[in-house]
Design a protein that fits this description.
Two copies of one chain form a homodimer.
Chain A: H1 3-12, H2 16-23, E1 28-32, E2 37-39, E3 47-53, E4 56-61, E5 67-73, H3 83-86, E6 92-95, E7 99-105, H4 106-115, H5 117-143, H6 146-163, E8 171-173, H7 178-185, H8 189-201, E9 205-208, E10 211-214, H9 217-224
Antiparallel strand pairs in A: 1-7, 2-6, 3-7, 4-5, 4-6, 8-10, 9-10
Helix pairs in contact in A: 1-5, 4-5, 6-8, 6-9, 7-8
Chain A binds a DNA duplex (30 and 30 nucleotides) through residues 145-146, 177-179, 187-191, 193-194, 196-197, 209.
DNA sequence: CGGGCTTTTGAGCCAAATCAAAAATAGTGG
DNA sequence: CCACTATTTTTGATTTGGCTCAAAAGCCCG
């Protein structure tokens, strides 16, 4: 089953019929190289994009050249669902690794949603979960020290990938550079490096060759003050 | 016209008929004292709450007692629209000043929305704007130094209140304590105090007796790196 | 094998935190 | 209207977490 269905199935509790509808939704898909801008601030694309494979992020650039990453987009996540309502993107999207991106014609999506309250609900659910995640990032940024902030990030990615079956054994592809991580956590790359070393030394994680393993998920979650509620993943399974 | 209608009218571009529908939406309203929890994490209230008058905030508490404020809620803002989709609140809401809160029975809202695509759209619009604002807060938190962060906050509140006719002359009630401001900006109260003094000394703001005046809005916005796009206020007017 | 990232290390610095206390304001009841 | 409290703001002194700059070491890939 594709990760989009897998994600929405869990969160929005879809019926079988709705799952089939969704399964059928993604028209085309393309492979995209790493570090490509997919959608830029100000765009109003007429397809909705979905990450099917790979790792992307939402981000904004500041006048001084600084970058703030606002979300990770993993398989199953919509990139730009909000555009049809808000009119245009108020941030940009870029891939971080080679990715497969699915396209859904916007008219097709609205037509289907108009006839399926369950699908509408699922789409709304997806945007609300995005918001909830953003809120938790804000909490991290505002009130958690660097080590907990990074650890919290690892916990989140772990749980989200697990929900779409991509983190067996708490082990998963984590292809970000420490600089990317820094831009998401509001820290400098140098400091991220020192924190990561500390998490390695305390045997909380193993991270090498772009693969991250959380050695004791519950322990790391306790350390980070991580409470998975905000992800609104009502069910989990290893697919 | 009530601030709810005023806000949604601007952003979601409602027709006259839809405005009347909305105007009629708020069943009851009550006055609530300052510093009261309105809705707590975990709640699933069966009324949707709207701020009609006053100032409230979304927030989360951390294990160590720290508080992170995630949004200001000003007249016209919904408090808990997301509950019907997500199931329960993942954060809390509290008033900061004596406020008037309107109630809409949740069934009534869904019934109306089911028959009015425009209203559905307006509600979705409102939650997406919340998300967009949250994103900009994250950027502030991650990448803007303290003075710009506070200034950015002032700019945002100014523009949002202006949009519902509550900031004539760039002057508006701003009843927060510096500690509240600190909890929203991820700073200590002491540091907020020093920054506020600096903004006063440089003649960017006057803030006394709970009234804030932005002396030169464009100058302050330039200083803060504030771009109002993220608020998605397509129109403005002094009501 | 060489060139470009990415990670790592070191040294010095600074923005913002903490702690503690005083001054100013705002409420409250008599 | 005033005295009495509680809260908020302000100031000062000190500490610190995380930043910057700079260079070295390690990796990946053609």
């Amino acid at each position: 089953m594709n990760p989009l269905v897998l994600k929405l199935e869990h969160g929005a509790r879809l019926s079988e019929g709705e799952k089939i509808l969704l399964e059928d939704l993604v028209g085309g898909a393309v492979s995209i190289a790493a570090r490509q801008d997919l959608i830029s601030e100000g765009d109003a694309p007429d397809h909705v994009h979905v990450v099917l494979k790979g790792f992307a992020c939402r981000y904004k650039l500041l006048a001084d050249g600084g970058r703030q990453i606002m979300a990770w987009l993993v398989p199953g996540d919509f990139c730009d669902l909000q555009v049809s309502i808000l009119g245009e993107m108020d941030h940009s999207i870029a891939t971080l690794t080679p990715s497969t991106i699915g396209f859904v014609p916007r008219d097709r999506l609205s037509a289907l949603a108009a006839n399926s309250p369950g699908l509408t609900r699922a789409l709304w659910w997806a945007t609300l979960v995005d918001e909830s995640v953003l809120g938790e990032w804000l909490v991290s940024m505002g009130r958690r020290p660097a080590a907990q902030r990074i650890a919290h990030m690892f916990c989140e990615v772990h749980r989200r990938l697990e929900a779409v079956g991509l983190a067996p054994n708490a082990t998963f592809d984590f292809p970000l550079s420490q600089a990317d991580l820094a831009d998401s956590a509001g820290l400098s790359a140098v400091h991220v490096n020192r924190v990561v070393q500390q998490l390695r030394e305390t045997r909380q994680i193993v991270w090498r060759r772009r693969v991250l393993q959380v050695l004791d998920p519950l322990a790391l979650e306790a350390f980070a003050g991580f409470d998975p509620n905000y992800l609104h993943l009502t069910a989990t399974r290893a697919a």
